[in-house]
């Protein structure tokens, strides 16, 4: 006989309310990509500036190439969302079409990128803050950890709640950047003075390698594009359609902002200046140095600090998918009441905090590590989608496969250039970390496989048969706690024994206890175990070896205090017994709580 119990619809409604709308998805999962407008164009300009004015003239063409790649990735991930509604992004595509090893490489690259995104975003936001207020510079690390704790706390309340918190700063930031672009396009000259470019130092000619390096540096602006595809289960129903709309909106907004800023860089002859960001110079030229300038700067600081939320929306969902596939411990698949994968959130926060502590919150130390992993994932995802089209062959599959193949070529080239140019700046750490993560996931998978073999998973076992059972109740006093424990034990098994461990200096108290037991006469056998070495759990373990071929239950009765701070006063004996029994016996350990209430 099979009985099925279904939760009421109200529970499902509450679950859906904790999921994302399209706007909420942009706020919760796209802050990383949105905030990259603050450092993506600057990364291009810094590389091209070594060739002086001739090099800076290629800012718009390089940005246009990145925008083309962004369009390819956006359309590709729109298809990934439809093909893999359970999330996973590059991991899901690679697992289905490229094989187990490639999927683990994709997963490892995504994990590394998510962790680095948190560390870099927090460090960049704090760096912008300390640039405006130099007096805070000595407290950089503490500010980083404080911002990280704030973002972590918000995400532990639920991804939809975090989306509501971040919608307002996201809208302000996007509105401010678009205002800068529109105002700058309509100006014939800068609204306020900008530092004049110095083209006297043309240290390098413009060559293919320089352009490739600028392209690779600027591609840092594309990190976060995959986050929506990784977190499709976090959206409200219909999940696929909402996630696709969010992906298209992200690609469109990011492309417009990147190209707009690149146009203004050329129009106002912006170039790198120590202590002044490229975005700050563009804002000054477009809006002047009044209220609008400070609004853009403040919204940029806030969004850079909060851009870490992209990882908090994406990595826990990816981790739960990996856990379901036995690549990570199954604890990562557990959801809390607010639909939060709190173990994934905790892992991400702790790992990012360690990175911040190691680097003392220095953004320049973290940035060389950034974006290497994500391009590996991009490339695997694109190649996997080519195989998807070749295998499924829907209408127009050749054009779609060509698009993904072109994307794979671009992202693969970017991955090679980024890795080679940043290898000596710390990129080698990522090259080492990726295979280590792959090896760790393979070890977890092998461990679960061995456990499954021992448990006979996938096989049909013989029907269960009843066995003679023995319930043992550790006791040391006669009380209501003892009474309730024995009553529960008599309901559980065929035979019940009360066991009392006696130490050398407890002989007198033990005799009194026996007298009280006989006076009480509970009709349960009392066994006293004398131990000269004053052990608590081991005598009971040794006694279990003498009970023969029976199913043994050990029922440990414990006091549940009224207040959490009273726990240190209670339950110490029960914990010691439970640990000893679980380590050294096959008994089923049951811990029964006696709740203390104020009368």
From TrEMBL:
Single GO cellular component term: membrane
In its keyword annotation, does this UniProt entry include Cytoplasm? no
Pfam families for the chain? AA_permease_2
Q: Where in the cell is it found?
A: Membrane
> GO molecular-function annotation terms?
transmembrane transporter activity
What keywords were assigned to this record? Membrane, Transmembrane, Transmembrane helix
Query: Record keywords: Transmembrane helix included?
Result: yes
Query: Chief localization class?
Result: membrane
Q: Which positions, given as ranges, span the membrane? A: 20-39, 45-73, 104-130, 136-154, 166-186, 206-228, 248-271, 291-319, 340-359, 365-389, 401-420, 426-444
What membrane topology does this protein have?
Multi-pass membrane protein
Q: InterPro entries recorded for this chain?
A: AA/rel_permease1, APC_K+_Transporter
Recorded coiled-coil stretches: none
The record's listing under PANTHER family reads: POTASSIUM TRANSPORTER KIMA (PTHR47704:SF1)
What's the protein called, per UniProt? Answer: Amino acid permease
In its UniProt entry, the species of origin is given as Amycolatopsis keratiniphila subsp. keratiniphila
